[in-house]
């Protein structure tokens, strides 16, 4: 159940390193800590606790990804990222299911690898999980993928499966899973996202978020982040 009081947050978009090699990555450590704390989930996923009251979520895909952050008073309360898939198709999902299975699954799904991306780390801090932040992150990544011309896939477990189907997610044919992950202590499924499965309400929300994120050519050419007020009414 969503709380009635919605937080007033700001967006930031962070580009992959190859799009802006001069940018600072000071923002990444606090994001990793927030993700690790949330994924730890009071001990459900012990992997993400790195010490006494210390949490972290790091992987090899940070610098190749687009990151969308939701922030309050310069503190990240939610995030999601979009990773363009290279020829070798390495990503979070491939680490879970195995590279050979993943490569076979994707090649059976599409030959247009250059226009395929993975959505991952769709995470909201526990204090804000009963707000609309998570919903807006989902719409925001749709906006970003549309702007960049990507179709995208994702994986989900026990809590996310029902949620992401609201965003046009469909089980990947023949290879959906489940795949058990010890790291996430969960059965993981693979999805792809189909714009034709989106409701009219979702399409309107994506359009609103697109204007909120300032997804235009000038924005991506000139800056590596965008801070604006969010749209709450979906």
Structure description:
The chain has one domain: Aminopeptidase. Helices cover 30% and strands 24% of the residues. Helix 4 packs across helix 6. The C terminus is likely disordered.
CATH architecture: 3-Layer(aba) Sandwich
Q: Based on helices, strands and strand pairing, what is the structural class?
A: alpha+beta
User: Helical content, roughly?
Assistant: 25-40%
Give me the CATH superfamily.
Gcn5-related N-acetyltransferase (GNAT)
How many individual β-strands?
Answer: 10
Poorly predicted runs are 217-234
What is the arithmetic mean of pLDDT?
Answer: 85
Largest sheet: 8 strands, mixed
Distance between the termini: 16 Å
| Backbone CA Rg | 17 Å
Q: Report the principal-axis shape.
A: globular
The CATH topology annotation reads as Aminopeptidase
Number of helices: 7
Order of helices and strands: EHEEEEHHEHEHEEEHH
Count of all domains: 1
Oligomeric state of the chains present here: single chain
CATH class: Alpha Beta
Beta-strand content bin? 15-25%
């Amino acid at each position: 159940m969503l709380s009635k009081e919605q937080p007033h947050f700001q967006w930031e978009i962070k580009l992959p390193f190859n799009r802006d090699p001069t940018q600072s990555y000071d923002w990444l450590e606090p994001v990793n800590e927030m993700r690790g704390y949330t994924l730890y989930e009071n001990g459900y996923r012990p992997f993400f606790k790195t010490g006494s009251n210390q949490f972290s979520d790091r992987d090899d895909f940070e610098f190749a990804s687009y990151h969308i952050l939701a922030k309050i008073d310069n503190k990240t309360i939610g995030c999601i990222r979009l990773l363009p898939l290279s020829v070798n198709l390495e990503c979070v999902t491939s680490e879970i299911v195995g590279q050979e299975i993943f490569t076979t699954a994707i090649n059976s799904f599409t030959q247009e690898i250059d226009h395929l991306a993975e959505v991952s780390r769709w995470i909201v801090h526990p204090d804000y999980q009963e707000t609309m932040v998570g919903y807006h992150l989902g719409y925001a990544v749709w906006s970003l993928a549309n702007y960049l011309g990507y179709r995208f896939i994702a994986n989900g477990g026990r809590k996310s499966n029902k949620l992401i189907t609201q965003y046009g997610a469909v089980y990947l044919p023949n290879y959906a899973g489940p795949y058990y992950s010890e790291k996430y202590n969960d059965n993981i499924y693979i999805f792809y996202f189909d714009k034709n499965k989106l409701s009219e309400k979702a399409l309107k929300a994506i359009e609103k978020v697109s204007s909120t994120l300032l997804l235009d050519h000038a924005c991506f050419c000139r800056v590596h982040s965008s801070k604006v007020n969010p749209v709450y009414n979906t």
